[in-house]
Amino acid sequence: MREMATSYGRSPGGYLWAVIEPAAGIALLSALFSLGFRNPAIGTNFAIFYATGLVPFMMFTDLSNKVAMALLFSKPLLNYPSVTFLDALLGRFIVNFLTQIMVSYVVFVGILMMFETRTIPQVSGIALATVMGATLAFGVGTVNAVLFTAFPIWQRVWSILTRPLVLLSGVIFIFDNVPQPYRDYLWWNPLIHVVGKMRDSFYPTYDSSYVSYAYLFGVSAILMLFGLIFLRRYHRDILDF
């Protein structure tokens, strides 16, 4: 409840802005690319094509950043013995994960009602892609929760390093259209697998054989493990910096 009040209760509109941001991004991309292209890389509708890339991407960035800032955000509460670092991480993750599910539902349903997209959404596939993105976000956020707190400069470095991600994660193109050897390099970006699974869940003819669940969940688990180990051992020292 504290997370909900502080994250969305302070600004006019509250949760409305969580929906407006991806919707505006999708509308802008659709308008720009429709001027130069007759059809998107898959299908016939620009809005649903960019939504299947931008929605999971924005979910990852929002969740990972919120989890990464959890210790700094809840630092006063962590002085109470009954409040642990895990409470801070999970509190931020759960509230914002539920928010992103709501945003995804509103955006996708809105596009499907407004346009003839010629897609066949698969709820189970969409749910799996959402879980993939959320798991990766929690892993990245947990590691960054350590680094952001211990090394404040890392927050700025991370912001710079991740700016090209929207271009490197298959949001505005499809993985198959990338020429070799760059396609092999991009495969190592876990977000490629999240976006690929989301697009596969809307386009039945889309070939997502490159998506590796083992790789995505393996990377996420390793990041979580290292982040939680360091937090368990050093979180008190880190908060005293």
UniProtKB/TrEMBL annotation:
- According to the record, the segments passing through the membrane are 15-35, 47-73, 93-115, 127-154, 210-231
The UniProt entry's GO biological process terms, in alphabetical order, are: lipopolysaccharide transport; polysaccharide transport
User: Nucleotide-binding among the record's keywords?
Assistant: no
Q: What membrane topology does this protein have? A: Multi-pass membrane protein
Give the ABC transmembrane type-2 domain ranges.
Answer: 13-234
Q: What superkingdom heads the lineage? A: Bacteria
Q: What is its main location?
A: membrane
Q: Which residues form the signal peptide?
A: none
Does the record carry Transmembrane helix as a key word?
yes
Name the InterPro entries for this protein.
ABC2_TM (IPR013525), ABC2_TM_bact-type (IPR047817), ABC_2_transport (IPR000412)
Enumerate the Pfam families for this protein: ABC2_membrane (PF01061)
Where in the cell is the protein located?
Cell inner membrane; Cell membrane
Q: List the keywords (alphabetical).
A: Capsule biogenesis/degradation, Cell membrane, Membrane, Polysaccharide transport, Sugar transport, Transmembrane, Transmembrane helix, Transport
Question: What does the record give under GO molecular function?
Answer: ABC-type transporter activity
What would be one Gene Ontology cellular-component term for the protein?
Answer: ATP-binding cassette (ABC) transporter complex
Give the family from UniProt.
Belongs to the ABC-2 integral membrane protein family.
Indicate what this protein is called per its UniProt record.
Answer: Transport permease protein
